[in-house]
Write a structure and sequence with these properties.
Largest sheet of chain B: 2 strands, antiparallel
CATH topology of chain B: Arc Repressor Mutant, subunit A
Number of helices of chain A: 27
CATH superfamily of chain B: Winged helix-like DNA-binding domain superfamily/Winged helix DNA-binding domain
CATH class of chain B: Mainly Alpha
CATH architecture of chain B: Orthogonal Bundle
Number of helices of chain B: 4
Number of domains of chain A: 4
Strand order of the largest sheet of chain B: 1-2
Radius of gyration of chain B: 17 Å
Structural class of chain A: alpha+beta
Number of strands of chain A: 19
Largest interface: A-B, 25 and 22 residues
Number of strands of chain B: 2
Oligomer: heterodimer
Chain lengths: ~850, ~120
Amino acid sequence: MIEPPKILHWLLDRCCPESRPDLKGDFLELYDTRSNENGRSFANRKLLRDAISVIPMNFIIKEKRHKPVVMFKTNLKIAQRNLVKNRMYTAINIVGLSVSLTICILITLFIRDEVSFDRNFEGGDRVYRIAGNYSQGGADRVKSAQTSYLVKPLIEKDVEGLEAITRADFNGNVITVGGDKQYTESHIVAGDSTFFDVFKIPFLKGDVTTALDRPENVVVDQTTAIKYFGTDDVLGKTIELRNVQFVITGVFETLPSNTHFQCAMVFSISGFKQWYPDWVLTNASGTSLVTYIRVKENFSVAGFESAISKQVAARWHWEGDGAPKYFLQPLTSIHLESNLQGEVGVNGNKITVYIFSITALVILILACINYINLTTAASFQRNKEVGMKKVLGSTTRMQISQFQTESFLVATTAVIIALVLAKLFMPTFNELSGKTLNFNPFTDPVVGPGILAVLALVGGVAGISPALVLLRTSTMGMLTNKLELRGRKSYLRSGLIIFQFSISITLIACTLIVVDQISFIRKSDLGIDPESVVLVPLQTSEIAEKSELLKTEALRNPAVISVSASMNKVTERVGGWRQYKVDPAQKDEVSCPSTAVSVGKNLLGTTFTGSKWFVRTGEIIGVVKDFHFASLHDKVEPVVFYLSSEQTEGYNWLEVKISSENMPQTIESLKSVWASVAGERAFEFEFMDEAVANHYQAEDRFLKIFTTFSVLSIMLGGLGLFGLTAFMAKRRTKEIGIRRVMGASVPALIQILSKDFLKLVLIANILGWPIAWYIMKNWMSNFAYHAPISAWAFIGTGIAVLMIAFLCILFHSLKVSRVNPVKSLRSE
Amino acid sequence: MFSRNNLGEFEEIVMLTIGVLGESAYGLAIKEEIESRLKRAVSMGALHTGLYRLEQKGYLKSKLGKATNVRGGKPKRFFSVTASGQKALKKAMESRQQLWKDIPEGVFKLFPSEQ
């Protein structure tokens, strides 16, 4: 095959019309034969002449595309007229879009914050937390974020790949500044001198390499420095903790809120060592603090984990199933993926992030569907306009640009409203989500482009669909008013309506079931009576030592029924991770939260010796009925109460059962008792029933969010249906007029008008129910005890949604049905 | 009324040639066939414009063949005469035959009538 020279190739491409590829093929074939027979120069000459002979053909072939005429001003004017003429649909569209966009913006900010956790640390991708998988005896194992005090010395020298390792003991305590000012701090960390080698937090004052070298050193963050001394120039100043003076040797930049732990000040762990009980310092199996490592490049996680097991075997002589298995968690994954025991703070949840993203997307899609449905329905009123433009030579592109102009106008308005709304609802959302989010739409790196993308989506894609629907129909049909409105188009619309309502139904059914479950667990008997029990934290060990005194003083008031003290807060999970929970408590503990004594008294007098790690022999003196400590998330767990005194175990909490009458006065008297015993320390207390209720915070939040979403979705669906029926009713004005003349009653007409839509809603029910059932079945598995999923949740949802849909339709149906048929039939 | 749909001479030749070629009637083949049979040069431009116009009138229809490597990857466009094209051809032929028939004897001396 002989090819013509490049220049002729180029000429051929210019001369042959694009739509006729065969022409060029003919030329090439001819060129080939000619050059074989008469030589190339002959072929070239001939080709040149032939190519020129084709040029006129380009003027004959009509398939050349015209460049669109820019008619922006005209488009804008027509768009404006149309939007104003159809005020109601414009309003429905703008409301729907702006509400859903607001939700999207808020959710985007929330998600961005969630995934940004712990990403601010320099080289944070090389930081890991060592977590442990511990045997609970037998086959049961438990994973904990905490490790023993002894893990650092175990591995720091003998395991390769480590750049730095630090322990971090997170706790809260009271700091005294200048001898008299007291601050309760909940973000105190005791760390090794290598703490800032692992977490590279920038220092403002002091030397990062030596700051924590001595036991009496402490480093504070800027915020705390200013809070205590009014300046961040605080090097050399002292603060007091548990009557020990610590010298400030550094000030670091305050941590952002998106870290999985908060720390206001870092003490040297060697200074804290004096307060650690023996078991912390010597027991390798104990879990008391968190260990973090920073590793070198080319680090192998699996290699490290096996090296650490080898060390456990070699140095602690601990092998087999009973030995703790340590594993690494990348720092950046902790917030969203880790949910172990002994986490430092409340972590986020990947599932929540997924649920939120999906919801934001679904709500945006719902609004877009409304938009498409309404604009396609409305565009049928514009068949004359489109037809006339077509007759006058307007191209498809120009027609589309008209519809797009309108979409862009609507979308832009909606975006502006959404931004304002998002700003307005920011505080409410922050309260709901427990975050401190803020944004500036002009500088925000995600929200700005996101909004542009939405504009493009709504303006571009949603704007095209009505244009395409219209342009498919014939011009003559449009102008002679014989437009076929049934058929394929309504399948799309029906499909979209079904989709919309299935989502609403799913959400509403889920909400009802969540409400059911939450009221079920709230109302079920915990086994203990949390009513009118006051929990008082014994803030310091000095006060705890006086608990006996507090008790006798408090009992002088007849409204105080009984008083007890315990090591753990009774509404929390007691103990850590043993097969049974041990709770050092005073003798009155049992009587205090009024637990009924059960009948299993045959255990009385048996001796109890505890297990391998916890040996305490005692005689069983009573058996209490099963009860839930915290919430119905968990099963009733085995608990052993044993008597203790302030000499053996420290008390942290005082439980006071008071009479339900005159509670404020009783609290006042407790307060004065506290003042007389504990001195200046402020009296803090909480009610046990409220503490129990706190366990359902997550569910409450879930419920609130779900309710909001389901209300929004049904609102969007309803709005859409409302708009659609308006169009349907308008289009069928004549039909209705004739029916009325023939004697149809108003109810019969309403039935005719609403039948089609209600059928769709019914189908949506059938689709939505199983989805809701499936989701809720999974959600319920979070709880040890669940309410049965009642059929009423589904039937109720179905009826409610049908009612809402019917009400939306009713308005326009009534309006149309009651018009005097003379009016509707007279006009032509 | 005069119909604009009368076939031109070249158009007629093209359509008849397509008929002659049958299945293998594509641009270049048509050109070569006309050239060899009628001994006259046919320019690519004229031929393809003619083919396009006939197609627009509905006398021809075409379909693209498979792309091959031989023609620089370009397909062949095969033409065939549609029913209305055939009718138009027949009409043209009949009107000429009628004209021939109606020529009085002795006018065309070179071609004496067959009878």
